[in-house]
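[audit] Reproducing an earlier prediction to check determinism. Same input, same settings, fresh worker. If the tokens differ from the archived copy the diff job will pick it up downstream; this log only records the rerun itself.
[audit] input (199 residues):
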Amino acid sequence: MWLWQRKLVEIAVGFFMLAGIAALLLLALKVSGLGFQSFYAEDQGYPVAVMFNNAGGLKPKAKVTIAGVYVGRVKSIELNQDYIARVDLWLHKDLKIPEDTRASILTAGLLGDNFIGLTPGFSENNLKAGAIIPETQTDSAMVLEDLISKFVSGKASEQPAAKSNSNQSEGAEVRHDPTLPEAPSSESAVKPAVPLPQK
């Protein structure tokens, strides 16, 4: 009897552990926006291509947002014949955005994953399935190494400029403008006291 009760407890504990793992898996799929249904199905959205001079660390399945709201995902990334990164997006079927929409590669936090942010324009015509957003309407990813190198090179160029300015200020001579009146000397500036008349 005691052994049977112990087995029931072990079975119940194992069941609750499996249920907890399944709940965590469902939560992860819900937060990531993947789910069990294929997002790339024809009845779930439409494709739009975006051209970037530098795709940075952007990866497939990265999210696409407008004003922080999830509206699509990155389907694929490839290099075209002009050595420009072509990023294929899959946008939600109900989303309508203008043709002059601007696309930017953003970063979630300082060291977070890259994603694409769309800024709708003011055109009356909307992007259709298979449309291409050219590189003139995109902002490439900011590479951390490039920012560090620019900062270091800027500091290095400031030091010689500061030294040359200090040398010029030390070697500069004070020139007198002949058009200005000369300042009175110390001897002429001090006048002798005039004696008061005695009564």
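[audit] rerun output stored. Observation attached for the diff report: Helices lie at 2-32, 144-171, 186-189.
[audit] end
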